[in-house]
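Notebook, student rotation project (T.W.).
Task set for the rotation: take a protein with a known small-molecule partner, predict the structure of the complex, and write up what can be learned from the model alone. Partner molecule chosen: nicotinamide-adenine-dinucleotide. Sequence and SMILES entered below by T.W., checked by me.
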Amino acid sequence: MSDQKKKVLLTGVAGFLGSNLLKRLLSEGHEVVGIDNLCMGRIEHLQPYLENPGFTFVQKDIMDPDTFNSLEKDFDIITHLAAFKIPRYGNASATLKVNSKGTEHVLEFAKDFACKTVLASTSDVYGMRPDVPFDEEGVCVIGNSKVPRWAYAVSKLYDEHLGLAYMDDYNFPVSILRFFGSYGPNQHLSWWGGPQSVFIDCLLKGEVIPIHGDGSQTRTFTFVEDTVSGIYASMMKDEANGEIFNIGAHKEMTILDLAHLLHKISGNPGEANVKLIPYDEIQQGKKYQDVMRRVPDTTKAERMLGFRAQFAPEDGLKITYEWQKAVRQAQAQAETV
Ligand SMILES: NC(=O)c1ccc[n+]([C@@H]2O[C@H](COP(=O)([O-])OP(=O)(O)OC[C@H]3O[C@@H](n4cnc5c(N)ncnc54)[C@H](O)[C@@H]3O)[C@@H](O)[C@H]2O)c1
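Predicted structure of the complex:
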């Protein structure tokens, strides 16, 4: 498939990655039909595009098979991002149901007209694997079922297997993308959006930054423009078909480093004010397990997709800080009117 104008079905369009991908697709002249039930996404993210003739918004639930029955079967690509993430606030059953049933409905729809489908997976599927960086061919080591967080990884592993099984059984191309912590404009402003969302809010309000555990756990924070470049390349390139790719940045940082860097970006005086919260206090009496090191090997995405993350954390986090500050200021102004 070459990089001509495509008709794309995008689920989760009002969410963080969905709205950023929508912006890129429309700017490249593609036509997009976007589905979202707005349970976690925001209509504000779509506001700049609602009048764009290349975009149609369908406010529906992917759990309902009728959502897909009402669509034409003339898409060139389906990119499936709608999902529930790590169940930090309980409700692991929603994560399991949305990520299994929702993906089943997407693949059932795609198979009827053999439509190329790109599925969102997560670095969480590597679980407790000890060897970093994680390459796509290695094992996934999922923790104890009594720890609710693993519901997310298990649901995404199910999606990966289902996608590859549909590809084999019904002969249409499926690509799987394992995202490593993405951040940027339109991120959800709670833990759902990642630690940087919460830390920025604390800095804006002059509050203590909560750190889970001792803050020595590491991540590679990926600016959303980079994540979108990885998604876009896998949508447009035939080389992606039937493959799994890590999509993430390279610089390994501890969560404490993240707090200190954001404090520096904020320009707040003194040292970052952090509070360490023991893991057993995090999840309402349920067990919690963290992943202590998480770093992607992106050699495969580089070789086959030409993808390599470009943004340094200092630059991406500065853009994100300014964006979140503006959103919070606008919200505060709206409340005083
Ligand atoms: N953001 C990251 O760093 C990251 C990391 C790993 C994996 N992922 C995966 O990437 C995808 C997008 O993540 P995101 O960060 O943009 O999440 P998000 O929550 O911001 O976006 C998901 C969107 O899906 C919508 N949605 C959820 N359930 C739905 C349903 N039943 N019907 C219709 N719409 C529904 C939500 O309203 C939301 O707008 C997800 O599949 C997620 O698991 C993201």
